[in-house]
Please model this.
Amino acid sequence: MKNRGVLAVISGFSGAGKGTLMKALLERYPNYALSVSCTTRSPREGEVNGREYYFVSGEEFEEMIAADQLIEYACYCGRYYGTPRSYVERQMEEGKDVLLEIEIQGALQIKKKFPDTVLIFILPPDAAELKRRLTGRGTETEEVIAARLSRAAEESEEAWKYDYLLVNDDLEECTEALHHLIESQHYRAGEQKERMRQIQEDLRAYRKN
Amino acid sequence: MKNRGVLAVISGFSGAGKGTLMKALLERYPNYALSVSCTTRSPREGEVNGREYYFVSGEEFEEMIAADQLIEYACYCGRYYGTPRSYVERQMEEGKDVLLEIEIQGALQIKKKFPDTVLIFILPPDAAELKRRLTGRGTETEEVIAARLSRAAEESEEAWKYDYLLVNDDLEECTEALHHLIESQHYRAGEQKERMRQIQEDLRAYRKN
Model:
């Protein structure tokens, strides 16, 4: 009897290292599937349709909303972003743990609809380290860095609503911790219902004999 | 900043292998402390005061109840069993994860008083395997085995109230799973409060500058 997969939503400040973590998990363990979002924004250079995002038109996106084909969606800076339902459900049915890297608003929508979803927020060890990482990339202007830090301050007001806050200090350690955290969700009482029911039934039968 | 330890209560059917699991965890990882219960029953052959139990008189036990020195207690077969508060609290303060192997009623009492406690129920892979293990010991009469199976059937009605149900099929795998499950509790949002508050404060300060 193959267990149904877990849906793990990963969020975190820009610079917390979410992308690197997802990549490490997917490379290292065969039980993960990465959900790719849809967006109405244009592809940036180097982005591939179906890898970073599915790039769709505004009309297509609205048709997906109308047909209830998205498990969450949100609008940022005038562009839609959403998570296609079919991929997530199919992978979970097949026993894969689905990783979904999205923003806080979408994450909270999903938790409300599917309370079994595990919400994980990735934190830097401290604010100074976050600033160092954003600065260290060397590709952003001071204004962009200031905007990201400001956004992080706002996001930190909502991170409380997540189930777990995981510190990404050392990539290796954090990847393992994230993996073990997601694995542990399979032992939640609700996930073991079928096995427990079977044991109970068999124990009762012994008692009758 | 050393994090406070987690209190993990482990229960399970007789024959599920709880004792062996606890022993493996304690031998393998330095971050665990095993809480030893008090009881008013007499020591059995080979039992050492302070190792299996603290053996106390009925009067002493009632004084501990009156002085609120027990975080839970229950009466089985006319004998008291209880968990001394001071050891558990001291170990948790020192950052140790405290393991407590007790019965369901005591476990539910503790969860009510201390909702951060994680309740873990150890299951056999199936009822037939449980029967095999109980029979395989070769030390119990058929009546005793029947009584244990009957008790397991009763306990299975309450195991639902636990946070996690962990199957002990392979000792090695189950020990690792249990360890990772307890480790993961440290990432719960409530446990990361102090760090999160600090990051938030620092991010706000950046915004002001």
